[in-house]
Amino acid sequence: MPTISRRHFLSLGLGCGGLLLDACWQTQGTANHLDRAKVIVAGGGFAGLNAAKALKRIAPELHVTLVEKKAAYLSCPGSNQVIAGMMPFSALAHDVASGATKMGVNVLASTIIGIDPQKKNITLTDGTQLPYDRLILAPGIDFRWDAIEGYNEAASKHIPHAWKAGAQTLLLQHQLRAMRTGGIVAITVPDNPYRCPPGPYERASLIAHFLKNHNPRAKILILDAKSRFSKQAAFTHAWQKIYPGMVEWISSEHEGRIDHIDTRHRIVHTEFNHHKADVLNVIPPQRAGKLVELADLQDPTGWCPVTPLTFESVKAPGIHIIGDACIATPMPKSAFAAQSQSRACASAVVALLSGKTPTHPILINHCYSFVDPERAISVTGVYSYQPSGKMLETLSSGETAPDGDWRQEGIYASDWYGLMMKETFD
Ligand SMILES: Cc1cc2nc3c(=O)[nH]c(=O)nc-3n(C[C@H](O)[C@H](O)[C@H](O)COP(=O)(O)OP(=O)(O)OC[C@H]3O[C@@H](n4cnc5c(N)ncnc54)[C@H](O)[C@@H]3O)c2cc1C
What we know:
Blueprint: H1 6-28, E1 38-42, H2 46-58, E2 63-68, E3 72-74, H3 79-83, E4 93-95, H4 97-102, E5 106-109, E6 112-116, E7 121-124, E8 129-131, E9 134-137, E10 141-143, H5 167-178, E11 184-189, H6 199-214, E12 219-224, H7 232-242, E13 247-250, H8 252-255, E14 258-262, E15 267-270, E16 274-276, E17 279-282, E18 286-288, E19 304-307, E20 312-313, E21 319-321, E22 326-327, H9 335-353, E23 362-370, E24 376-386, E25 391-399, H10 406-425
Parallel strand pairs: 1-2, 1-9, 2-5, 9-21, 11-12, 11-17, 12-13, 19-22
Antiparallel strand pairs: 3-4, 6-7, 7-8, 10-18, 14-15, 15-16, 19-20, 23-24, 24-25
Helix pairs in contact: 1-9, 2-9, 6-7
The structure holds flavin-adenine dinucleotide.
């Protein structure tokens, strides 16, 4: 696997951002209809907010409306730290409207309940219909509640998933604090694709850090539907060196997949075994946020196929889908990837509204995971659009080596977090 250095990555990242913006600014001279064009962005998370802001940055005269159902956004990045008591819950909350409003985005606090791709309008909960020339959907994920026998939305009220930040984050945190001495924490992990591929293993590491200090005879069991996982070498190294004997990873090759869960007794039955937990964290299989069903934009996998040149749906012209909800393989579903896609999509939307051909995007993902409060590991990928296959292709990738400087990565990870929140919400 080819690797890239941090300096090379940063130069690519900054360079590509610059190229995209240059291309877009060039469209402005001929964009004689942009001041009459309407773009609606649905979802004010990492993908949607960054798309709305990028549209206004590229074409200030464009009418951009962002619709988000929640007044305060609760960030999943950082939520593993909250579970492990390293960060206050309040640090996850961000105001959706203020930063975007400052840039001239019209922010509406409402839920979209209808999409009409033919008439090109959306309907809000109060019945208001808003017309659009281009619609960008960024609804994140929902859970496939029927995927694991015995586990459903009602069960999640006492067996948390904590895979959307909020009450679930606090429920898992409280259960860990209240666990008996020497108890077992079991985390079930779904097969790909799902939100934040390294997230479950970061969670296991940070829970191990908490338990090492508060309940050192406790153990963590990871029951995985996969046979390999993101940043596996570095995570495995961390568990052996920092938390010896505390974290056990059980792959589907070893025990088979989860057969069913007895939520009353907190027992996970795999095909060949069963495990009783004191604290059970079930991360269910996922799909695109339900919003996409309003225009039937998902495929049988539950995710939305798009052409990555513009992130336009292959099922409904004029509707673009970005972030966790879209299929942008081989990009993972992360906040960083969502932000990268949002900028490429905004650039393409402005080009299309101006009658121009969108430029071929170069997209980046850079994903950090903490293994304790100070040390982090990362994985990086650079992706380009392949016109022949209408696909993205990995140009280069790399990840932290087991003997890398993890403390320095920890500093970079904290910097990234601060920067990401500022760029998205300020
Ligand atoms: C534990 C954990 C840790 C993570 N850590 C990292 C990390 O360190 N780095 C990283 O890059 N990524 C991380 N991620 C992944 C990251 O959270 C997601 O990839 C990211 O949130 C995706 O952004 P999005 O905008 O697609 O979706 P979301 O952030 O979920 O935003 C979707 C928004 O759409 C709104 N919405 C949905 N339907 C409607 C509707 N009908 N009307 C109006 N609004 C609607 C929702 O309210 C929501 O605000 C982590 C995830 C988890 C679970």
